[in-house]
Amino acid sequence: MKRILVVLMFTVMSLNALALDLWVKGGVNQGTGSKKMEDFGYNAALELSQGFLGFVDLGAGIAYNGNLKFDGISVQENVGYDLTPVYVFAKFNIIPVALKPYVVARLGKNFVVNDNTDYNGKSEAKGGAYGAVGVGVEFLSSFQGEVLYSISEVRNNPSGKDNVDMVSLTLGYNFF
Length: 176
Fold this sequence. Notes:
The chain is mainly β. It has one helix spanning about 1-20, and strands at about 20-30, 40-50, 55-70, 80-95, 100-115, 120, 120-125, 125-140, 145-155, 165-175. The radius of gyration is 20 Å and the shape is elongated.
């Protein structure tokens, strides 16, 4: 019995030593540049990270950016799609105290989903590279607010450009 308790305690302490953070995020986004979106879009994300050296967090995540419908497209009404970026990120904590401001950079690939860009009966929008930079703040040890500027490459984009520029405002909660 003693041996089982020792192994169990060692396992729990080892998992705690990894100090993984699981963030669940949600928010709104809006297009920037020459082609605006009709309405605000929404986003949801899941990120897993680990802290290094006390001021850098490295991790990976997946997000879902929905309701990306472009304004003023003459081909058809409500042309749009949703984007799902899969990315790695680095978060640099500026002053790691009670209220923790940070700068974040993301790099990955995005995928076009729920595509209704109908070009003569054929959907042609294709995902490509994804990059983002932003600033945020962690507070109350479990919450996070973030403003992010992202560029998503979308080939055959109905807006006429190959990049979708967005500004996002997200709130997150840390489960671990």
